[in-house]
Design goal:
128 residues, mainly alpha, 5 helices, elongated
Length: 128
């Protein structure tokens, strides 16, 4: 079964593959970064409702970021259970409507993840 992050990995890989040799590594790093900022956004949410300072420190940030980078590196590069060729074959089996829906959801996920994370960071930083 191919999950959402697998398709997102494949779409990012396809975008970067004509431009660089290490497109798979870049794709895994981007996926890890997006997952990390989602978790960090969830960690920052309680600070909006309380006036708690120290909701997110540098150590927490680094641990979360490295955790997702390592997990995605193992999943997409080291173990290679998820291959580019296998994802490409499954992608080609999708109907055009499914491909459009996956691309749209992927774009929305990336845009919302980045927007919410930086929006929260700016809001909380300006209220400190």
């Amino acid at each position: 079964m191919v999950g959402f992050f697998d398709y997102l990995f494949y779409l990012i890989y396809k975008f970067y593959s004509p431009k660089e040799k290490g497109a798979a590594t870049t794709s895994a790093m981007i996926i890890g970064g997006l997952q990390a900022i989602n978790v960090l956004s969830i960690i920052m949410l309680p600070a909006i409702f309380t006036s708690a300072k120290g909701y997110l420190n540098t150590i927490t940030f680094i641990i979360v970021l490295f955790f997702f980078q390592i997990i995605n590196y193992i999943r997409y590069i080291y173990r290679e259970k998820v291959t580019i060729q296998g994802l490409g074959e499954k992608w080609q089996k999708r109907s055009e409507a499914q491909k459009i829906r996956i691309r749209t959801l992927s774009f929305l996920y990336v845009a919302l993840s980045i927007g919410i994370f930086f929006g929260l960071a700016i809001y909380l930083g300006s209220n400190s």
